[in-house]
Design goal:
The chain is α+β, with helices and mostly antiparallel strands. The chain has two domains: 43 residues, no CATH class; 171 residues, Porin. The protein contains four helices and eleven strands. The chain has an eight-stranded antiparallel beta barrel with strand order 3-5-6-7-8-9-10-11. Strands 1-2 form a two-stranded antiparallel ribbon. A hairpin with a 7-residue loop joins strand 7 and strand 8.
Length: 231
């Protein structure tokens, strides 16, 4: 009997030693705390979460802004950006356009017409920065606009319409850079190429420079100047 008891005790000791060396735990026992990990700021105690870095604390994934260059030519817009992940942003840019139209009659320029319209751009940007919409960027976009063009009164030919309506659609590719300053002010700039096609041929003689930039067809350069706030 004593021999049997000794065997049982020895077996229990062996099983306990085996479980201890292999790290197996029972379901009703608390899991072992993970070992302390080292970070760039020191050692993190077991069970504690690492504190976010400075970039993670200040990451801003939404921004709203304007392009002052567009305002200067009569294209009024607000650009919104949403970063769905670090470095990756979706951009939305609705706009309203109002620019003068000048017609040359008998060698003289006659003002009084206008180009009016609305539309928008939807695009994607890849940023190099880690704080949000900052760093160098590159990205494509698609655009659409609906416009009406009216000539100055008294200048249209007899029997012709005083105004024309048309749509423009196309795409663009932009590159540039942005910086986040202070509490969230975003300053940036860039340039790109844009191609648009119009639903009907336009009389470009009736479009001054501002109107031609806004609604003219074909390949044209575009310039970006950003003043925004990120949060």
């Amino acid at each position: 009997m004593r021999a049997c008891s000794s065997v049982l005790v020895s077996a229990a000791v062996f099983v306990a030693a085996f479980l201890g060396t292999t790290g197996i735990a029972y379901a009703d026992e608390p899991a072992a705390h993970p070992a302390a990990s080292a970070t760039s700021t020191g050692t993190v105690a077991a069970g504690e979460k690492a504190k976010p870095t400075g970039d993670e604390e200040s990451f801003r994934n939404i921004s709203l802004g304007v392009n002052p260059l567009g305002i200067a030519i009569g294209r009024y817009s607000i650009q919104g950006e949403y970063l769905f992940a670090k470095h990756h942003a979706i951009t939305l840019n609705p706009f309203f356009a109002h620019a003068p139209v000048t017609v040359t009659v008998n060698g003289q320029e006659v003002d009084g017409g206008s180009l009016n319209g609305f539309g928008g751009e939807l695009g994607y940007r890849l940023y190099t920065g880690t704080r949000g919409p900052n760093g160098f960027f590159v990205g494509p976009s698609v655009l659409f606009g609906s416009y009406s063009q009216s000539a100055p009164s008294g200048t249209q030919a007899a029997g012709s319409k005083g105004s024309d309506s048309f749509v423009a659609y196309g795409g663009a590719l932009d590159i540039g850079g942005q910086a986040i300053i202070g509490p969230g002010i975003v300053l940036g700039g860039g340039f790109g190429l844009q191609y648009t096609s119009t639903s009907q041929d336009l009389n470009t003689d009736n479009l001054n420079l501002a109107s031609a930039i806004i609604a003219g067809g074909g390949v044209r350069p575009r310039f970006l100047l950003t003043l925004a706030y990120a949060f």
